[in-house]
Amino acid sequence: MTVHGRCDPPFAQVREEFAANLAHRGEVGASVCVIVDGEVAVDLWGGQAAPDRPWAEDTIGHVWSCTKGATALCAHVLASRGDLDLDAPVIRYWPEYGVRGKGGTLVRHLLAHQAGLPALREPPPPGAFYDGKLMAGRLAEQEPYWEPGTRHGYHALTFGYLVGEVVRRVSGRSLGTFFREEVAEPLGLDFWLGLPEEMEGRVAPTVPADPPQAPASFYLKAFGDPASVQAAVLAHEGGYMAAGESDSRAAHASEIGAVGGITNARGLAGMYRPLSLGGGDLVSREHLALMALTASAGTDAVLLAPTHFALGFVKAVDNRHLPAPDSEGALLTETAFGHVGMGGSIGFCDPAARLAFGYTMNKQGAGLGVNPRGQALVDAVYRALGHRQAYGGIWYAP
């Protein structure tokens, strides 16, 4: 399949790997963007957005948990301005939250997946995930699964309601509105938390992953123990994870801050561009340093595999010692942070390398993190930059 776009000569390996993804690694349609020193070095797209439609320059798609990076950024913008204290109790901004053992929960606990609310204990009504206030209210009333701050577990579907509600309480604007007005519009991003209806024709529908040869530990626990938190994550989601529902107009129109973002590689890389350059007009250089620090790490209480999180972002995770598909992580340099999305999409920045990166696709992979398609692109970028060593002892020879 033809690869379209531009690629500066030093990054020719990125184009070669992108073409190899389409030709040999099961890629259906995808985009990749690399920004170095604030300038676009790679902006490629190719394949099929849908069976009857090629992936075009302006094709956008569902980036799943890459959305968490956008949501976290909104909180950090407020924190950098002094409007939000990340070390303050959540009840300072959201008084109703402080019931059933959650009074000591700090804002940073929400961002670091330490809040103890990775799932609702009871099933919500159908369509509840499209009502952010309802979901936030349900979570505020709920007893946590563990004492906040004592452990971490991936808040796969609830992260956006928790952090988004704090953003709403502090700013007086919904999460999607705040992101659009304070991040997307100033940066000129084609990135949406709440997609306008007139843009539906540009969306590449999700192509579900092929069944894995062996289920991840998360799924084994979820299906083997109906009383587990893993089972609640899958079962108590109001129908959002039903086949095809995430591609519905209702899903695209909603401001689902954990998994609902719609953009392309250009949008992801563009969002991280100011952070790769020291913060730009979004956050101060001092606050940017805080954003890059690991806030929680170790065996994840929900995913049952090692994870490393900064405050709202994924850090480098080396799970190669685990059996597939748990072996997928995110092999980045230790100075990088961003977020992966279900199926393999990723956006991140590496301030030490003055790098911003985005990769999106419609055909999902089956693992927990960045699969070989995305990792091949990341590796090619670091090789092109001449970085000699990355996370986990991987050597990137120029």
From TrEMBL:
Annotated Beta-lactamase-related domain residues:
18-366
Q: Which domain of life is it from?
A: Bacteria
Signal peptide start and end residues = none
Give the InterPro entries listed for this entry.
Answer: Beta-lactam-related (IPR001466), Beta-lactam/transpept-like (IPR012338), Beta-lactamase/esterase (IPR052907)
Q: What is this protein called?
A: Beta-lactamase-related domain-containing protein
The scientific name of the source species is [Actinomadura] parvosata subsp. kistnae
